[in-house]
Amino acid sequence: MDPSKQPRIFVADDPVDGRAWATVAMHGLGSVVQWGDGQKLLDALTEMAAPDVVFVSDSLPDFTGLEICLRLTSSAVTRATPVILMSTDPSDEFIRSAFEAGATDVLHQPLHPDLLRARVRSYLALSRQARPMDAETQSKTAELERMIETLRAELSERERLMARAEFLFDHDLVTGLPNRRHLLQLVERARRRAEGSHWPMAIVALGIERYAALQASMDKDSFDRMISAAAAGLRQSLRPMDFVARISEELFAAVLVPRETDTAEIVSRNARDIVARAAAALNSEIMLDGRHVALEVRTAVAIYPQDGAHGKDLLKHLDDTLTLTRGATPRERRRIKTPDLASALALELRLRQAIDSDRLIPFYQPKIDAKTGLLLGGETLIRWPLRTGEYVGPGEFVPIAEAGGLIPVLDDYVLTAACVQIAEWQDRFPNFRIGVNLSALKLHNRGVFDRLRELFATTGARARHLELEITESALITDFDAASNWLSAVRTMGVSVALDDFGTGYSSLAYLRRLPLDAIKIDQSFVSGLNEDRSTVPIVRAMIAMAKALGMQVIAEGVETPWQAQILTELGCDGLQGFLYSPAVPAEKFEAMLAAGRVDPRIKKEMPEPPADRRRSSESANQPDSRMPGNGPPAVARDNRTQNAQSKRKP
Fold first, then answer.
1. GGDEF domain: from which residue to which, for each copy (predicted)?
2. Rounded to whole angstroms, what are the CA distances from 142 to 128, 133, 145, 146, 212?
């Protein structure tokens, strides 16, 4: 047999008298290689191909047989090679240790030559059978490793492509800036931060003039480089905290992130400064392919919250302003501008001073029992007196308060004034209730409970005389939290009314889940009784819903005897409006409390409607087979002029 193809048998045994037997016993079975110590065997295995079988004596001078077994069976080269341990120790404990060390078999010395040859043949046959299986396993393992590596590379490439796709979905391809979709997300994030801290926030926009003409005048690569240069100039004009986006082909927008110390005046000034710097950066000439290109821009500014409550509203404000100024000359653009921020900021400053110096005055509009005319109480409405003797109404200064983050301060001001006044009146007039409007900001502020307790303690006001009026929109913002809030307030003895009912989400489904004492029908429905016959069944349904849930019903904006009559017939409990009185100062309201009732200011009967209208009015009081539930008659057309003349601003 070719020596290179003979089985390889490694023997490690005592160098003095242990190796002679191997040459004799294994003659003709294969190529025998012998060593006199364990280290030489281990060194050879690092340089030579793996043998077919290894015999290891337990009497080596440097290693025990068990140690050599452990080394061989833990090596990748000889892990599958049969290892035979030869020993003079026949104990069961030694045999168990040998097998635990990885030995294939244990032979006891001295060895019988014929038995040894038979064992060697068996081990060589076993090795020959295992070698193809081992080679196949190695091949399969290598193939599997290649597949895993290929899959890992494919997954890495897929992740890279997905990340790129996500980036392109949110960013402009040319400049790498956030696009309009991404900007909306960034604006909403900044807006929520500003809203939570009652900070103003500004967004500025810059539109490139003659965009289409510029694009047509150069190749795509040059044009894209020009746009990228413009984006870089815009970024450099911003503060590090601000971020810029390309929201359309010709429009850039930048969100000016508010800082904790920024007031509305500071935000406005920063916006103007940044617009000026950005416009200067874009108006400057850009060197492109050896020629100078000057960009002309138009600008717009949107301030949160007065120009929009949400990101999409703010962007629409910018779009509208830029559309108006497209193609206009610089002088014309100065005439087409957003609301005067300077005057708004001045008014906000004066409002802050008026609050701080206690110069706002609470007025009270009476609420009347619909059936008896007795005075039920009043609603607190703040007036801001000017030096001229005129008053600024809530319709004018509340938007300024909202823009300047003054609503929580204003809420607390009105609540405090109402409690002080209740404490003054409650012992002399035991049966009245004063209403105070609370904003959504106050409603969702847990500190309001502590503030109410503090006010009741410091002013001496009794909770049963206070009624909090909440709008539907404030409740729907977080329905469950609002419901829990209302329940907690009512446990204090304070009553709760749903203000402006009918303007939001009026339905029995949500109304029955709210712990309310009363609803106030919005004045738009009350005025509609004069104009639209279909309003009657709507109001009837509102009253029916509230009555079914045990709530009182107050109608706001009652201006004519006809409205009062219809509302009373429909089951309204209380009436509030100019028919009885506008909001009046505390001393006049106190006189009304002392009188105990307020009579209508217009006492004459309504004129009888023409015959054709009378017939339709009479039919409105009868059940209609085609429209079930139609109610009381609509007012005659002749009375509309009188109604319009009776309307006044509170």
1. 199-339
2. 22, 14, 5, 6, 60
